[in-house]
Each structure stands twice: as C-alpha cells, then as structure tokens.
Design brief:
Elements: E1 9-10, H1 11-19, H2 23-35, H3 45-49, E2 83-86, E3 95-99, H4 104-117, E4 121-124, E5 147-150, E6 153-161, E7 167-176, E8 181-189, H5 201-217, H6 222-225, E9 231-235, H7 240-258, E10 260-261, H8 263-274
Parallel strand pairs: 3-9, 4-8, 4-9
Antiparallel strand pairs: 1-10, 2-3, 5-6, 6-7, 7-8
Helix pairs in contact: 7-8
C-alpha cells in the first residue's frame, strides 16, 4: 500500500501494516493519491433541473450518466432520482447509493426505485441529529402498525427492533396497488453523529456484519430470483458515508473469499464510479 499503487495485503500483512508506527503517515499518503486521481464521465444536470427546483437541492452532487439509476417510465414520463449503481466484490450493481429523500417527490421516487429493483435491504446512515430535515417527510413510519402511502405504493412498518444501542431495524412491507408485496429490512445506524468524524470502529463493523448477516439469511436468494437485488445505501449527500459503508463491506467480503484485501483499489474504483 502507498505511493498511489494497488497492493493487496494478506490478513497478517494488514495487521502488520496497521501496527506500523508510520501507518498514519502511509494512510495520509494513500488518501492524497486517491484525491489526486481524475474522474471521467458526464452527468445530465439539465435532466435533473427539469424535475427539481433549486429549493430541493436534489440535483447537487449528480452521478455520472453511465451508472445513474433511471426509473421506469410512468404516465408517459421518466422521473429523475439522484442515485447510482455500485459494483460489489462479486456482483455487478450490488449497491445503489443515493441521497436521503427530503421532499415528497423524492420520497415517492425513492420507493419506486426500491420496488422496481425489488431491493430487500435499505441502509440509512444519517439521523435527525445529522440531518434535521428528515422528520419533515419520513419515508417510513417510525412506529409499528402504521402505513404511509406514496403514489402506487403503501409502506407499512410491521416490526421495530430497538434492542441494539447503535442501530435500529425496521421490518417493512411495501405493497403495490396493482398487486404484490415486498418485504424490506431497513437498518438505521444512529451512532454516526458528526460529519467528517468516523464512528467508533468496532460499533460500525458490528453494524456492517449485522446488515450482511440479514442480507444472506433473510433476502430472497439469487438462485430463486435469478438475479441479485441491489442493497440501497443512503445518507445526506449520497456519497461520503455511503461510500465508506460500501468500501468496508466490499473489502470484508474480499478478504473472506480470497484471504487478501486491496483497500486502495476498492476505494479508487468506488470514487471513479460516483465521481468524487
């Protein structure tokens, strides 16, 4: 690792690297190498501007066209959503990263995206403490047994688990007025209190492991559906916290399957995918 070059590390090599007295300096060097990398791609600001007013700020931080999520046509028109596909370690488009929806239109399009992709896992990485606008138009009800309706979809909070100090788990049922239901696990991490300050490492890793466990044990298997539904990860800007989550999740899976980790290359690819 270091000097802007990819270098995979074994488990022992990773431990040795972290324990190196110069580890902090080496990480800073890698960070500088990453931010100096140039992204290439185009984005359609004119498309976004057609759907959102300046007051929404939904078109800030646009994703590249080549991996931007495009919703299906409805009533003769396409709705815009500021969301991007992200490749996982062994699956293409394993994640969708997006901004936390803060307007009624954005919430409606958010649930359309969930339904169209049949996504069974949602990871939320900001709270009222970090994003005060969240409570104004919630996209799911905070209490059990209550239902919210957005367009053709009804979202019911069927079960709420609050037995973990660092996150909440909601069991949601999404029902389409045309027929069909989708069961969704909604994870809210509530211990990332300040931007630019990472949460406690052990707590965040426990959270990622729990999300992974549910994704492997409760989500409809690929063999049955014939495809893998993307996990939806969102935060205030749709980038910083979401990318941290994806980078760690991908790297954990990489080291489990290969015995090696290449964090630099993983982060570099993520940055190129979303244009940061």
């Amino acid at each position: 690792m270091g000097s802007g070059k990819s270098k995979a590390l074994t488990r022992k090599g990773l431990i040795k690297f972290v324990e190196n007295k110069n580890a902090a300096k080496l990480f800073v060097q890698e960070y500088e190498d990453l931010i100096n990398e140039k992204e290439e791609g185009t984005f359609s600001a004119s498309i976004a501007a057609g759907y959102f007013g300046d007051c929404q700020n939904e078109n800030e931080g646009l994703y590249f066209d080549h991996n931007r999520v495009v919703l299906q046509e409805e009533n003769g028109s396409h709705a815009y959503i500021n969301a991007s596909y992200i490749d996982g370690y062994d699956f293409q488009d394993a994640y969708i990263t997006t901004k936390t929806p803060l307007s009624r239109m954005a919430v409606r399009n958010f649930w359309r995206m969930v339904w169209e992709h049949q996504s069974e896992t949602i990871v939320m990485l900001d709270t009222r403490k970090t994003n005060e606008k969240i409570h104004r138009i919630p996209y799911c009800h905070p209490k059990e047994g209550f239902t919210l309706r957005y367009g053709q979809l009804k979202v019911t909070t069927s079960k709420l688990h609050l037995d973990h100090k660092n996150f909440e788990l909601r069991k949601l049922i999404v029902t389409h007025e045309g027929g069909g239901s989708l069961y969704v696990n909604h994870f809210l991490y509530n211990n990332w209190r300040k931007d630019h300050i990472l949460p406690r490492t052990s707590d965040f890793l426990d959270f990622i492991r729990m999300v992974s466990l549910y994704s492997h044990t409760t989500v409809t298997p690929v063999t049955r559906k014939g495809y893998k539904s993307p996990m939806i990860v969102h935060c205030r800007d749709g980038l910083e916290r979401s990318i941290v989550f994806c980078a760690i999740d991908i790297s954990i899976l990489q080291i489990r399957k290969t015995g090696k980790i290449d964090l630099y290359s993983n982060v570099l690819k993520l940055r190129r995918d979303v244009g940061i």
